[in-house]
Amino acid sequence: MAYQNITGAKLAQYSTAAGLSAKVYTSPADTRTYVKDIDICNTTATSATASVYLVGNSATAGTTNALLYNVTIPAYSNMQWTGAQIINSGDFVQVQASISGVVFNITGGLAT
To answer: Which of 56, 57, 93, 112 has the most crowded CB, counting CB atoms within 10 A?
Structure first.
């Protein structure tokens, strides 16, 4: 299948509880998803760590598919990752934070 059209999209917005999230985004059927920006905002008075995983369809989140791993986000601060990662149909994104109150915003595009 040739992917001809790319449409910009807000892929996910997720405010965490402590621990690993459920799937916050899954790439739709017959679509490749382009992950472009990830903004992580710590809305609390406590320093936090955060991780982002780009997980294959039948895999589980772990160090082998971490895009960001245990990144420290100071209290009331944010960080931004900008790059280019492609996930295939059925692949998904999971996030993790050490405390609740860490917000993830993920944007990119959908190629169909």
So the answer is: 93
